[in-house]
Amino acid sequence: MSLTTRTYLVVTCSLCGATSDPREPEICLPDTDEGRDLLSLLCSDWTWSDPITPHLCPDCIKATDCERNGHYWSAWKAPAYDSCTCVRYRHCEHCGATERLCHCPANDTPAPSA
Question: Which residues are within 8 A (CB) of 79 and not within 5 positions of it... i.e. 6 or more apart?
Answer without folding.
Answer: 87, 88, 89
